[in-house]
Write a structure and sequence with these properties.
37% of the residues are buried. The protein is built from nine helices and no strands. The radius of gyration is 17 Å and the shape is globular. Helices cover 66% and strands 0% of the residues. The protein is mainly α. Helix 2 packs across helix 4.
């Protein structure tokens, strides 16, 4: 799948159509929901991101088209296991402070998506076990990420790069760790 959505393009579209979500949060939410619920997560994710927007507004339709593309490319990146997954963040030439805030928002969205989808008892249990409980704990820390003004720019850049790589690997690992449970049929007494 070659079609990609740029962070700033989606961010502007979300703002224009009146969504309460930014691009990084939206992608984090999608990634967490896909890890926990798979393909069926798509409609709920889309409804949540576009909640309180005007369906008749052409800007909302433009935004929905971008979100559909993001959904398809993200699912493909995760499911193909080709290590092509990348968190949707601002370009590397943007200010490191802005990118750091986006890291925090992406992690916030991911955690929300991972734990807010309807889960079977098995998935809830798996989220409490290693390595997923460690990922959740680390992501909670990343939600509080900020720029250290007293640190040299190159050190802030290096830290940012390490965190992006961690998010990339953590998202893929979460998707793979939950695959067997995500694909298992949920019985009514497990909900």
């Amino acid at each position: 799948m070659d079609e990609k959505v740029a962070h700033d393009t989606l961010d502007e579209a979300l703002q224009r159509c009146g969504s309460n979500w930014d691009a990084a949060q939206t992608h984090g939410l999608l990634t967490g929901r896909l890890a926990a619920a798979g393909v069926p997560a798509g409609p709920d994710w889309l409804l949540q991101v576009l909640e309180n927007t005007d369906e008749s507004n052409a800007l909302q339709k433009e935004c929905q088209k971008l979100l559909d593309t993001l959904y398809q490319s993200t699912y493909w990146q995760l499911s193909e296991r080709l290590s092509e997954f990348e968190p949707l963040l601002p370009d590397d030439d943007d200010d490191v402070g802005r990118r750091t805030i986006a890291l925090a928002h992406w992690s916030e969205g991911f955690l929300h998506g991972l734990v807010s989808s309807g889960h079977s008892a098995d998935i809830k249990q798996r989220l409490g076990e290693e390595p997923l409980c460690d990922i959740i704990r680390d992501m909670l820390e990343i939600t509080r990420a900020g720029l250290d003004e007293d640190t040299a720019d190159e050190d802030n850049e290096a830290a940012y790069t390490e965190i992006v790589e961690y998010l990339r690997v953590a998202a893929q690992l979460s998707f793979e760790e939950l695959a067997d449970l995500r694909n298992k049929e949920v019985t009514p007494d497990e909900q």
